[in-house]
Design goal:
alpha+beta; 3 helices; 7 strands
């Protein structure tokens, strides 16, 4: 399991919660979120994320990934700020600031 602020991700159960409330993600959305957070703040490039999701390069991967990450952010609500976009490179887990 990985915790990032109010977000908890349980890989074994494919479960995501925000402030204890379950968040319904598709298989692809969950795997994209996991691939980003498991890197613990390091940048996950578009190519690496495409490899993690599809196992190979895919046409228009950046656009597809942007749509997937956008859906994840939308579903995470207030916890969406845990995903930083690194322009022209990829995504990373944002530093979590304690209150």
């Amino acid at each position: 399991m990985i915790r990032a602020g109010d977000l908890l991700i349980d890989r074994e159960r494919y479960l995501v919660t925000v402030q204890g409330e379950p968040v319904q993600l598709t298989f692809m959305e969950f795997n994209a979120l996991w691939a980003i957070v498991v890197q613990s703040g390091r940048v996950v490039t578009y190519d690496a994320l495409a490899e993690a999701l599809w196992g190979r390069p895919v046409p228009h991967a950046r656009r597809r990934l942007a749509v997937i990450v956008s859906r994840v952010r939308s579903k995470l609500g207030e916890a969406a700020d845990v995903i930083d976009t690194v322009t022209r490179v990829g995504y990373r887990l944002a530093p979590v600031i304690a209150d």
